Amino acid sequence: MKLFKRPKKPGVVPMPLWLQGMFELGQAAVLSTLVVILPLTGVWAANGFSDRDYASLARLSGQAWLLLHGVPLSLTFPAGTVGPEETGGLLSLIPLGLTLIPFFLAWRAGRRLARASYTDQLWQALLGALGTYALVGTAAAYFSGNEDVSISLVAGGLVPLIPAGLGLIIGARREAGSWVRLIGVDLTDWIARTSQHSRWAGSYLWAAVRAGVVGISAALGLSALLLVAAVVLNWAQMVAIYERLDAGIIGGVVLTVAQLGLIPNFVGWTLSWASGAGFVLGTGSTISPLETTVGPLPALPVLAALPGGQMEFAYAALLIPVAAGVLAGWWFLREGENHFDEWLAIKIHARWFTAPVSTIALGGIIGIVAGLFAMAAAWISSGSLGIGRFTEIGPEPLWTGIWVAAEVAVGAVIGYAAGPWLEHEKRPRPAASDDILDRV
User: Is the pLDDT reported for residue 398 higher than 90?
Assistant: First the structure.
């Protein structure tokens, strides 16, 4: 079955799918490269770089393109630059806001390829697209390296496929409208052939996973609001740092773009801070509601929004993941898929026992899902600048996941238990055992 009908003109041979995939994602690579080259060219034209060679500008643009795709850069500092001896480090702090540029370009390409493909032929377009992007990344890694920056060709070819591949698949799925139209596999039909108990268990787990996604989404959203509030309250200090830097119009624009590119990273740091796990800005530093210890920081205006001084109300930030868990538990109640509670009611005829046990189990599942996503967010938002003490930047993924999982789980239990009162109705009781057995 064809996803969408391609218009054809008499005597016109349609472009092969693999070639169209190469063209679509090659176009995305070119556009994302222009996003990097244009601001760097402005800085270069304003004498912002000591090396005025065109080749050095091209290499720097390639390095920046690879970094925003998540490729780590191995830096080498000659003796006398950072210390008395030659030192090196790994630059791995990814500006996630800029990574969204190739992601959305690939998302657009995925939609266009889905419109041009049959269900059983989409793999040809995707293979051509991803193969082209891998070649572009490998070429960028090969030509962008020098004596100061070395880049793995394997990482240059494979790592950019992560944001590009995700964008392609999500865009194609969005255009197709269903997985069956995209890959030809009908999951609904496969589920219908399973037993009723399996369908109930699957519905329960799937609803709990979605509730966990609701919880982590709410936690990230509330953390973003907290970040905005911190920026607004410290706006005067940020402006003062801009004035002291006196970077000029072009330098100020590039500095602002770089900070905007790091906003998703800052949201992940804020979530870790609000959970109590905290984050670090350099070796030996700690920034959390429980303790704040920092050393000298670079003159980055947004860092003026860091919490400091007397923080009597910092502990209130710990309620952010809990509030997100309340929303997740309430959402699960409205979904009405607590089949584990129904199963317990069949096996054990003691409501005073089955209700708390099923609710606690539900909170645990939702918390684990939210914690895993929080761990992933902490991992991709952290990294290293590869220089001096700034080899450790961002939250610690494991502790962030543990703290968020525990707090969201507590909130989910509260939200599910208090949901009926929030909606001014009685808590739904599991169906009678005879009725459930009759449905089986």
Answer: yes
